[in-house]
């Protein structure tokens, strides 16, 4: 064995034999103590800073806001899930002058071209994070990932009661450990990317617009 190799091996053995460096348990940052109204206001502010459009409404009027949003954009259709509470409400309240409802009921292989040709899609949300200004989505068989990804306009419906101070708080209060999804998404605005010079561009690899309807039945 050469002297150089022997020296290297000796140093490795000496390093391994040393006592492990003492480490301290990381301390989670303090959670934000905000009122319901402040959480809604902060989430709205941060989402709008990332070019999202946010409307504060309530459970009885959100469809009216949605209809105004779609009429302004002259959308060619609204992709939705017929099996969700949102889908059932849309079917019951839809009007003939609005863009047609398009149910996401087929496997992606059978409707791929149609999915990417529809202007808008609507989904529910698992919750919102006030500290970073993000929505939490849990795609599943009823609301697959492409429902929020394929259309140029993603409309998300969020109940104000599901806004949390942080991701850690959301995971704890909603007991994520008891049923963690295979795919959890955090969305803070329209899709965005940056080039090597860190120039941020919106709407490149996904929806060009994010419209959030926050349903707050306790607003003043």
From TrEMBL:
<protein>
    <submittedName>
        <fullName>Lactate utilization protein</fullName>
    </submittedName>
</protein>
<dbReference type="InterPro" id="IPR037171">
    <property type="entry name" value="NagB/RpiA_transferase-like"/>
</dbReference>
<dbReference type="InterPro" id="IPR024185">
    <property type="entry name" value="FTHF_cligase-like_sf"/>
</dbReference>
<dbReference type="InterPro" id="IPR003741">
    <property type="entry name" value="LUD_dom"/>
</dbReference>
<dbReference type="Pfam" id="PF02589">
    <property type="entry name" value="LUD_dom"/>
</dbReference>
<feature type="domain" description="LUD">
    <location>
        <begin position="41"/>
        <end position="215"/>
    </location>
</feature>
């Amino acid at each position: 064995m050469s002297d150089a190799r022997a020296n290297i091996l000796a140093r490795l053995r000496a390093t391994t034999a040393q006592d492990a460096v003492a480490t301290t348990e990381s301390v989670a940052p303090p959670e934000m103590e905000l009122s319901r109204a402040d959480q809604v206001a902060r989430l709205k502010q941060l989402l709008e800073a990332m070019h999202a459009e946010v409307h504060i409404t309530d459970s009885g009027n959100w469809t009216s806001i949605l209809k105004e949003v779609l009429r302004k954009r002259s959308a060619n259709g609204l992709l939705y899930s017929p099996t969700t509470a949102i889908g059932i409400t849309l079917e019951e309240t839809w009007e003939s002058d609005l863009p047609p409802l398009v149910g996401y009921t087929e496997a992606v292989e059978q409707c791929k071209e149609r999915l990417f040709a529809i202007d808008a899609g609507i989904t529910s949300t698992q919750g919102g994070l006030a500290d970073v200004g993000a929505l939490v989505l849990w795609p599943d068989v009823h609301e697959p990932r492409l429902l929020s990804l394929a259309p140029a306009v993603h409309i998300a419906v969020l109940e104000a009661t599901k806004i949390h101070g942080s991701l850690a708080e959301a995971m704890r209060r909603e007991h994520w450990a008891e049923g963690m999804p295979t795919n959890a998404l955090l969305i803070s605005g329209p899709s965005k990317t940056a080039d090597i010079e860190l120039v941020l561009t919106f709407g490149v690899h996904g929806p060009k617009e994010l419209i959030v309807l926050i349903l707050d039945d306790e607003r003043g």
